[in-house]
Every structure is written in C-alpha cells, then in structure tokens.
Amino acid sequence: MRTVVDLTRCQGYAQCVFLAPEVFGLHGEEGLFYATAVPADQAERVRPAAAACPVQAILLGQEVSSGAR
Ligand code: SF4
User: Which residues line ligand 1 (CB under 6 A)?
Assistant: First the structure.
C-alpha cells in the first residue's frame, strides 16, 4: 500500500499520528512527515488513520506492480 498526504490540506490535527504512529509523524507543530510506502503490517492502522483525518488529506493507493503478467 502507498500513501500520499496532501500537505496543502493537512492542518496538523495529528489524528493520523495518533492512529498510525509508525507511518505518520509530526515535526514541531505542523510539519507532517510520513512513509509513502506503508509496511504490510501497518495497513490496518493506516486505513482508519486516513478515515479519521478531518480534512481527508490522506490518499491511499495500492502498490503498483511492475511487469506484465
Ligand atoms: S489527520 Fe489529516 S490533518 Fe491531521 S495531521 Fe494527519 S493528515 Fe494532517
């Protein structure tokens, strides 16, 4: 799973940090940082974190597999 945060929307509410601290973090008051590649064992934490974001700034996507089948 991959995650992208629209930092122009993010207001630093830190709901995501609270729910998935391994993936999201805050520097100081407002600087959000996050892992774009979500470890498999964190996926079940990241989904509710994205749902909890008050401004829907967190977008989730599946890993794009490379190579044709
Ligand atoms: S919950 Fe949303 S607004 Fe709050 S820090 Fe996370 S991405 Fe930003």
Answer: 5, 10-16, 24, 32, 53, 55, 57-58
Record the pTM.
Answer: 0.85
DSSP 3-state of 33: strand
* Structural domains in the chain, sorted by start: 2-61 (3.30.70.20)
- What distance in angstroms lies between residue 64's CA and the mean position of ligand 1's atoms? 24
CA distance 19 to 17: 6
Atom of ligand 1 nearest to the CA of 11: 3
pLDDT (tens digit per residue) in 33-58 = 999 999 999 999 999 999 999 999 99
